[in-house]
Amino acid sequence: MLKYKFKSNTIHSNTSLNILRSFISTKSFNNNNNNNSNNSNNTSNNSSFVNRHQKFKGKEEVNLLNVIKLPKNKPNKNEILPILEKKEKPGKQEIKKEAQLKKKLGSLENEKKKVLSQIKEFDETPDALKMLFESGIKKRLQKKLKEIENEEIEIKKGLQENIKHDVEENQVKKESMSMKDLDTMKLLFGTDFEGEAENKPKTEIDTVVEFMYQDRFYIGVVKNILSSGKLQVERLVTKTSGKYSTDTVSINRSDVSFYWKDLFGAMNINELIEMDSSYQSFKFQTNIVNDTKLALFKNEYKFTTDQVAKVLYNVREPTKKQLYSTFKYLSTSDTITKPEDDRLGYEFVKPIDNKERLDQFIKKIKSILNRIKEESFEKSNIIHQFDHNDTYYLNIIKLLSISPRRNFVPDSSYRVILKELGYENSSESAKKLLEDIGFVSKVPEDVSFYNKNLGLWSKEIYEYSKIIETQPNLITDLLSSIRINFDKPVISIDPSSTLGIDDAISIDCESSDRFNTVYIHISDFIRWMPDGTDNILYKSALLNLKTFYPPNGAYHMFPPSLVKILSLSNATQDNPTYAITMEINFDKSTSQIESYKIYPTSLTSVIPLSQSIVTKRLESIIQNPKNANEEEFSLGERILYTLYKFTRKRQAYRESNKTSLESYGRVNQYKKEIRIKQSHSGEENNNYDVPLSTLSQKRPHQSLAHEIVDEILSSVDDIFTEIFQSKGIYGFYKYFGQPNYKRISPKSSFLTITSPIRNFTHLFTQYQLKSLLLNPNANTKDPKLFFDSDYTTSVGDQVIKTIGLKKKYQINIVNFVLLKAIESEIEKQKMQNIQNPDFKAVLEGSILSVNPSKYHFVIFLHKFQYSANCTFSIPQNQKSTPFRVNDRVKVTVESIDLNNLSLKLNFDKFIDRSLNKLYNY
User: Fold this and answer.
1) Per-residue pLDDT at 57 exceeds 60
2) Options 2.40.50.140, 3.40.1410.10, 3.40.50.300, 1.10.1040.10; which CATH number does 840-912 get?
3) Who's near 31: CB < 8 A, 6+ residues apart?
4) Residue 468: in which H helix or E strand, if any?
5) Residue of 152, 167, 153 lying closest to 98 (CA atoms)
6) Which residues pair with 890 in a beta bridge?
7) Is the pLDDT of residue 247 over 60?
């Protein structure tokens, strides 16, 4: 037992680079002309003709025919006239009707693309996330698609009946033009004629595409478009021997890096083979590996093959061979990959923080996979092969396996991992890799508690859970000699949805005239870890780190079945639960901590209460004095009311001592409001950033139950911080909610231990506490008994890094789900206004902050619980913004991008001034 006099008299309070403009200049073309100065006169005349022609636009192009002498081999007049023959112009009514129909058809085509994209997105969404979509959404989307297609058919019929010279007819005529005609047109209008937009194919068929397949880049020709929307591509495969082969693969459009159709139109596989043969034999320039030039693209979000070719070759329009050579360079570079948002182009691979550690991890996984193939060890023992150095990379793979989009995973090291291990770059492959090395992909059949969200767990942890549940005495209790049977009433106060209780409270205000005694019971998880860091529970906690809560449900640190088994609420006379109990004596008059004890206990009865029930009962007592007769209270009511009165005294003590719960991640109840500075436009010197008086915002409502728990657990944090600091024991601290293995500030860093079931850092600290309870007089620097500085630092670095990774992923998923809901609202409004192709969806919300100097404000969209930046403009005759903080406004949606999690809004109109209706957030 640890017994102390509390030492403190007070409580510790807690660019984008425009490359093409730089490199594409007329100088390069002048150089090219100089290099070709030895050409024949005819060639010079033709070149001069083309250069002179390029200076003219519109009607002047036709006038050139009257002043420029054609080459001697000009074509027969009868061959030119049909090409230049004027078409009969349609009437004004036909033109107007055609324009209206085309506009509507274009709107429908855009709508159709969106619906197809939504269907594809739904089909590719992992089953675990499909629950986030509205029920029957796919059927509604398919119905919507059918309606759009029917309307398209009707409009196209109208075009055929009313328009004599439609675009498709002209396209067919131009494509059927003979090569002789084309040569003639080149003479008249220059060599650029072949690259005009009219000659481009309308679909991807017979066009060259660069694409990613099984995490490698290839080039091929599109041969078919499948009903699923996938492209069937004849792929060119170049072997190391120099031989060529082709095969057919199906790819998603999102796998395409670049289409050649915009530059060269239709091509066939033989042309690619010929170019590759030329490339291999150096028949055209291949020496383009200029890292200095390519490095200029590192500031670009993404870049395409033609953009790189223009820079590397310093030309305005790269040739086929130059483009192919550039593709070969990009596709074989280890520093180039495809953008994660599935858009066209390439991007640089993000640098890896610790290449050596990543290589070691990959080497370890390869070894495990090889040993599994050789059947030299059981998969169930897989978890013992890993340590804290593997935690970060295993969590990257785990996040990828559950992510609806790859770019939601904040670290793209998984690309290297999967590629080196021979797996495709996909969520399914990440899931398969984890399964291949022994992590469970489904809950064992003999486990009654079902949870669809699985952590990094092996079968061994389920087997160990069974032993804890059915044969607990087989596991040695190292603290049994000092464990006390606790016989006072115990309650827990938690949200009703909580799975597993890991802290509980008792209070005694009658046994002493001097003290109010509060007992805090923390689940003794170390009870089940007699073998320390080699135990399956410690290993599992180290790999999963903490329970986190994305929108599709909680991912627990331990299997839910185990969490329920070890919950304090399972306590019975025959099967007690185990706890570490802190007994704190508070001075009755001042509520200051006077002393405390810490000892292991066994609990035989814990009454679980929800926060809503506790708050409701206390409010009933407080609001009706007739109900405040303590003599008529039941035992439960007496405990709650005593806790309430104690909490109020303790809050008064904190207020008088100017101490704060905010650094504990909790809210001070005596601060009833916060102050927000707001900027407003001023008249002096057109300054739009003159601060006004601050605006008061009410604190969010916090339940009485929550106040009680916050106050008591903060006292526990304070005491444990005091103990560990005084004895020089290492543990994990929180600094304004952020974990760290060092104490950053004496007033704002506190040690946490109260949630060992949900958080590895709490379990780590509890392990240190167990050593102190067993060896109260031992040297705390002894590495055999305590985690030392080196181990704590080594583990701490990986823990903090991985927790940050999971936090960023959680933010991305939350934003994705909220933006999905906003997108559904946008589509709903557009369907209601389908006759107006220029319609923009309108959203409503309250202004949280205003920055007039940058012409934007932050709006909170109440319906979606989402905040976003919004732009606005100020009329020239108006020097002030039409709104302030808390005003309700309407905004228009300019764009929404689920891939990049962005929402662009613009101010529409002011609704009402709500300064007196302060928004509680």
Assistant:
1) no
2) 2.40.50.140
3) none
4) helix 459-470
5) 167
6) 844, 909
7) yes
